[in-house]
Amino acid sequence: MQDVKIHDKVFTVMIEAKQINERIKTLADSINIEYKDKKPLFLGVLNGAFLFAADLFKEINIECEISFVKVSSYSGTESSGAVKNLIGISHSIKDRHVIVLEDIVDTGDTARYIIEELKRHETASIKFATLLFKPKALKHNFKPDYSCFEIDPAFVVGFGLDYDGLGRNLNDIYVLK
Ligand code: IMP
Ligand code: MG
Which of 33, 49, 141, 157 has CB atoms 3.0–4.6 Å from 167's, for a disulfide? Predict the structure, then answer.
């Protein structure tokens, strides 16, 4: 597979679409078992998690709902660390089994913030599922309940993840060369 140039940087393939699809299917299989009769509410984190959320959701065969929230915290290739706001919790999440769907956990700032916000709504339970997890970049005592891939702390794009707006439409996941 060929390298891609996005803005000023060159990226090379790290995880192929086929592998991504397989891991998502495996995650869906465990959720289908674990959440049977719990009518989980998936909360996809926009923008990055929209493809992950869609592909996972298609493999869920139990009664479930999906909604989306948005946080803004990132610009360029380094986390700004300053998380701003969680918007879009219009759905009543009280007494619901919530599964947050995120594209990537880097420092863990965003994940921790989202969970703190959700905890104020008296949910029945909250679990955190991420497509990618960079354990070595983590600054908090946080571990996602489910992660499809653990990766080294390099900047990645594709499958929903962007570099300054571009690259989300790549079917594979690419890493900065
Ligand atoms: P954290 O708050 O540092 O964990 O960063 C989480 C957010 O930063 C994610 O939701 C992504 O939007 C963004 N992010 C972190 N690492 C990357 C990356 O390697 N590529 C693209 N976006 C990233
Ligand atoms: Mg994100």
Answer: 157
